[in-house]
């Protein structure tokens, strides 16, 4: 007897990028048959008229075991999230993985070890502008190795947040990452909004070490009108033999903590950002636009609150970043409580399908799904994910292509955590966490030790 049968859905084959109507049988968290025959099971899901996709894999998130972020991820069809991005992560990986397994979680989680905040601070570098001393260098290398040994899936960097990180410091950690054959996601170092040099810095490190690169939230880095140039640089580097992917989201306006180096007064001036273009996204001033006075007050008293930076809106940059065959959609979801944050936390993947497949025809449905499932699975060596085949993990997202829609908005306009429409069922390891659009609260997620 099967645990779950999904019947008569339009099933996407991500490997061949084809689709056909068929039935799927699930037992003990695995796909055990894909067949035209009728199936009986304890739970039967009628998927007639719906798309059946492998569960979406979000390669750039900050879920990091936070329940509400896990719920918002599941409700937009994400069954696996890679956390620990932008240089911010747990450090004791045995402890992190054990706690997640003990308490359970809604979705699967892979986890990176972060350099810019986590490794640097643990090595004793409290000041992000400071160069590392030789002994601190050694500490970081030791801790990075320990994390990778314990199953971290790579080393992440948020170079904007640690201006003091030298080329040699990044290179040393990149070599370790390459030794382990893991991924190095990088939020690049931007001195100005048109800083293409930041790409060359990282490419040169990859050339020396052979590390696999993943450029993070690409549209937030290069969406200021230089996307074409940035992609051209990436394509040339791929052509020259480097292993490079990028991830990118569906919004232009980005968000980070007000206390970071990214929001230094000098940096703000260099980038010609106006205070009125900044909106508090959490804390007591949530939803308010900043002025110099409020900016200084938040920097001083609320450094860990988030602020959204509104940039000139040119949506063509969003779509351009996600079209190449080495690009994957991502959320950049943070660790938010209800009502706070940025619409990326709830709307990203439905918005991607709705706009790029349904409205604009930038991508075929099959290609869009491939980029959200099999491509990230291959990038992070998740051999049992990203495909609907016998023997694969039963992570599945079932949605209505004609009604799929994001409803989350920026915090000055309403609720950034409004859940999307059209995501009807989400199964994680064979267990439904979303049923007829409603979140079930079940916790079948596993930790994915690399
Ligand atoms: Zn980042």
Automatic annotation (TrEMBL):
GO terms for molecular function: hydrolase activity, acting on carbon-nitrogen (but not peptide) bonds. Residues 44-89, 343-434 form the Amidohydrolase domain. It holds the Pfam family Amidohydro_3. InterPro entries: Amidohydro_3, Metal-dep_hydrolase_composite, Metal_Hydrolase, Metallo-dep_Hydrolases_sf. PANTHER family: COLLAPSIN RESPONSE MEDIATOR PROTEIN, HYDRANTOINASE/DIHYDROPYRIMIDINASE FAMILY MEMBER. This is N-acyl-D-amino-acid deacylase. The lineage of its organism: Bacteria, Bacillati, Bacillota, Negativicutes, Selenomonadales.
């Amino acid at each position: 007897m099967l645990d779950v049968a999904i019947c008569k859905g339009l099933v996407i084959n991500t490997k061949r990028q084809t689709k056909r109507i068929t039935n799927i049988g699930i037992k003990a968290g695995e796909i055990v048959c894909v067949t035209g025959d009728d199936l009986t099971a304890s739970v039967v899901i009628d998927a007639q008229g719906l798309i059946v996709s492998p569960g979406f894999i979000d390669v750039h998130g900050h879920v990091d075991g936070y329940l509400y972020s896990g719920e918002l991820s599941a409700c937009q069809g994400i069954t696996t999230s890679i956390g620990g991005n932008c240089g911010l992560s747990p450090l004791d990986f045995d402890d992190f993985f054990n706690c997640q397994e003990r308490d359970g979680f809604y979705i699967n989680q892979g986890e990176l070890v972060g350099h810019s905040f986590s490794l640097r601070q643990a090595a004793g570098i409290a000041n992000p502008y400071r160069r590392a001393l030789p002994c601190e260098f050694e500490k970081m290398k030791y801790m990075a190795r320990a994390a990778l040994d314990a199953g971290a899936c790579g080393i992440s960097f948020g170079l904007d947040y640690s201006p003091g990180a030298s080329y040699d410091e990044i290179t040393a950690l990149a070599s370790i990452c390459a030794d382990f054959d893991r991924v190095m996601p990088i939020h690049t170092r931007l001195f100005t909004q048109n800083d293409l040099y930041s790409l060359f810095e990282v490419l040169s490190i990859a050339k020396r070490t052979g590390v696999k690169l993943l450029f993070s939230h690409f549209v937030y880095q290069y969406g200021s009108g230089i996307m074409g140039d940035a992609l051209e640089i990436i394509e040339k580097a791929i052509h020259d033999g480097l292993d490079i992917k990028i991830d990118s989201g569906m919004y232009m306006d980005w968000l980070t903590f007000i206390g970071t180096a990214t929001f230094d007064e000098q940096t703000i001036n260099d980038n010609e950002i106006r205070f009125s273009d900044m909106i508090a996204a959490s804390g007591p001033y949530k939803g308010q636009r900043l002025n110099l006075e409020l900016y200084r007050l938040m920097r001083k008293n609320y450094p860990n609150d988030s602020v959204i930076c509104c940039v000139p809106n040119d949506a063509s940059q969003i779509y351009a970043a996600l079209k190449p065959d080495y690009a994957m959609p991502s959320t950049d979801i943070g660790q938010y409580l209800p009502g706070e944050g940025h619409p990326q936390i709830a709307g990203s993947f439905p918005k991607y399908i709705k706009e790029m497949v349904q409205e604009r025809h930038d991508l075929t449905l099959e290609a869009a799904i491939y980029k959200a499932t099999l491509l990230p699975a291959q990038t992070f060596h998740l051999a049992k994910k990203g495909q609907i085949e016998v023997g694969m993990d039963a992570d599945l997202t079932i949605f209505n292509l004609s009604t799929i829609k994001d409803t989350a908005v920026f915090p000055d306009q309403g609720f950034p955590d409004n859940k999307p429409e059209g995501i009807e069922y989400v199964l994680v390891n064979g267990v439904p966490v979303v049923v007829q659009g409603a979140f079930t609260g079940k916790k079948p997620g596993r930790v994915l030790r690399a």
